[in-house]
Amino acid sequence: SELVTHSYLNSFFSIPEAPAISTARAGNVIGGGDFANDRIIPDCVRAVQQDKLILVRNPNSTRPYQHVLEPLFAYLMIAQKQFEDKQQYAGWYNVGPDECDCVTTGELTDLFCRIWGAGAEWVNQAEENAPHEANFLKLDCSKLKAVFGWKPRWHIDQAIEKTVAWTKAWKNGKNISQIMDHQIAEYCGLGGNEI
């Protein structure tokens, strides 16, 4: 989609009159409200809700996990800066965590279990003849950092803490809008009263 978008722009618009178009992508986003199948955090949540062991298919695969607020705020920042100066900021960007937040799926699950508590445990469910999956994937975010001075705000432990807090609030029927507003305020450094 990135190639199509920028090819279309280059083919049908001259540079001075070209609309400000950017593409941005993020990988391995986690956060409250994700209930998709075959994703590690939703799989963890479903297992603990059913008092079952968490089954981890690829515990040694390293991924750049990040909280959903990281790319959302990066997208908003790109749009704002691009509105202010379309020639300087229009482009393509990757949004991802720092090196220290690229962890194995097993480490991520350990962190989830520790923060969730209540006896959450996982088991290695790797299959011998499973289709090949890359052991290490990471987006190069150097352009986003160089152009905007951007850097992630929450490390992986905070991302899991916020995801678990959201999930437990949802599970216990609490006001999700209030939880989200509080987490957004925390992310923005505005503090906020404890929920």
- The number of strands is 8
Helix content: 40-55%
Extract low-pLDDT stretches: none
Mean pLDDT: 88
Please tell me what the overall shape is: globular
Radius of gyration: 19 Å
**Strand portion:** 5-15%
Helical segment count: 8
Please explain how this structure is put together.
The strands form four sheets. The chain has a two-stranded parallel ribbon with strand order 1-6. A two-stranded parallel sheet has the order 2-5. A two-stranded parallel sheet has the order 3-8. The mean pLDDT is 88. It is an alpha/beta fold and 195 residues long. It has helices at 2-12, 40-49, 69-84, 86-89, 105-116, 142-148, 156-171, 176-187; strands at 23-26, 29-30, 54-56, 62-64, 66-67, 92-95, 102-104, 122-124. The termini are far apart.
Task: List the defining traits of the structure above.
8 strands; 195 residues; alpha/beta; 45% helix; two-stranded parallel sheet; two-stranded parallel ribbon
Topology, pairings included?
Elements: H1 2-12, E1 23-26, E2 29-30, H2 40-49, E3 54-56, E4 62-64, E5 66-67, H3 69-84, H4 86-89, E6 92-95, E7 102-104, H5 105-116, E8 122-124, H6 142-148, H7 156-171, H8 176-187
Parallel strand pairs: 1-6, 2-5, 3-8
Antiparallel strand pairs: 4-7
Helix pairs in contact: 5-7, 7-8
Summarize the entry for a quick read.
The protein is of the alpha/beta class and 195 residues long. 45% of the residues lie in helices and 12% in strands.
